[in-house]
Each structure stands twice: as C-alpha cells, then as structure tokens.
Request: fold
Amino acid sequence: MRDVPALFRLINFYAEQRLLLPRSLADLCESVEDFFVGAERGRVVAGGALKLYDNDVAEIRSLCVEPGLKNSGLGRALTGRLLSEAERRGLKTVFALTVAPEFFFKCRFQEAPRENFPLKIWRDCLLCPKFFQCDEKTVAFDLTAERAVNSTLPAEAAAVPAVSAFR
Ligand SMILES: CC(C)(COP(=O)(O)OP(=O)(O)OC[C@H]1O[C@@H](n2cnc3c(N)ncnc32)[C@H](O)[C@@H]1OP(=O)(O)O)[C@@H](O)C(=O)NCCC(=O)NCCS
Reply:
C-alpha cells in the first residue's frame, strides 16, 4: 500500500496526456495486488498491473515508466515481469489496450481483434469516454505459442541497471 501514492501520481501524470486512463486512489487501493513496480533505492519509478479476467486471460493495465527513465529498457523489463507472472499462473493470453502499440510489438505482442476480449468491453470500454472515438489498439501475447516453441519471455528484469528490484 505504501507504493499507491507514487503509482497514483505517475499514472495520472500520463492520464493528463491521454496516454493512460486515470485511476482513482480508491481504485488503486483495491487493485494494488495486481501491480508490480520497479523501484530505485526504494522509490517507485515504474508500474504496471496484471488484471485477471478468468482462468486463461489477463490484461496489462496502467503500464508506465517515470519520464526521466523512459527508453532505458524498464518498460520492456516490467512487461516481461508481468508476462512471467501470467506464465506462473498458467494463463493463455495477455492483452492490452494501448496508445503505444509499437512498444508492445517490440515486446512480441501482436495486434488482435478487441472482440476477442468481450469481458473488457463490458467491464471498461462501455463506461469509457473514448468509446465512440477510441484511439487505442488491442494487442495480445499468446503464452501457449511461447510454450510450444519453448522460448523465453521478452525481458529479464536483471538486465535493467537503473532498477534494483521489481516487487
Ligand atoms: C510505453 C512505456 C511503458 C515504454 O517503457 P520504456 O521503458 O520507455 O520502453 P523500453 O525502453 O523498454 O522500450 C522497449 C522498446 O520499445 C520502444 N518504445 C518505447 N516506447 C515506445 C513508444 N511509445 N512507441 C514506440 N516504441 C516505443 C523503444 O524504442 C524500444 O525499442 P528498441 O528495442 O528497438 O530499442 C513508457 O514509455 C511510458 O510510460 N509511456 C507513457 C505511458 C504509456 O504510454 N503507456 C502505454 C502502455 S499502456
């Protein structure tokens, strides 16, 4: 819970630029267990959540890196950490709705039809002010395909020197 204020500031900083959806303090407190954060000397510098939908599917939400640390591999490492968690839970697919699809393509996600994720549409999209003019793309990572070819997930957290740990 002590990470919530920093997550709140970081997420809503990007929400003001319409890059992320805003999250309330109450919402973050309720869903804090979904989050992994990157910390530098105890200070939260990145965060992202893995929201579970059912036995097979989860969504990466609110993925963000502190402005001064962008493009240093932190976003990819955090995405890798979230995918490892999805793998540990035996999920099949991890998706995201994003204004930065190119970043996710670099993490080996592929564009996917949003209709593949009807629970997302019912849970969030229908309540979203962007619904009729959505600028987000849907991207998905197929964990079953990764298992089939026995390859590694996109990133290793240890490869990011700026961050001491993901927690
Ligand atoms: C998007 C974000 C999480 C990426 O994190 P990051 O630490 O800056 O990204 P990385 O350094 O791990 O980049 C990995 C690769 O993606 C590319 N990339 C990063 N952000 C990108 C973007 N917005 N558009 C296109 N490519 C991007 C990098 O150039 C890098 O490519 P390379 O492997 O060829 O060098 C971060 O920039 C951010 O917080 N953006 C604001 C919030 C946001 O837009 N979130 C969207 C996710 S829902």
Q: What stands out?
A: The radius of gyration is 15 Å. Residues 74-88 form the longest helix (15 residues). Residues 14, 19-20, 63-65, 70-76, 96, 98-100, 102-103, 106 surround coenzyme A (CB under 6 Å).
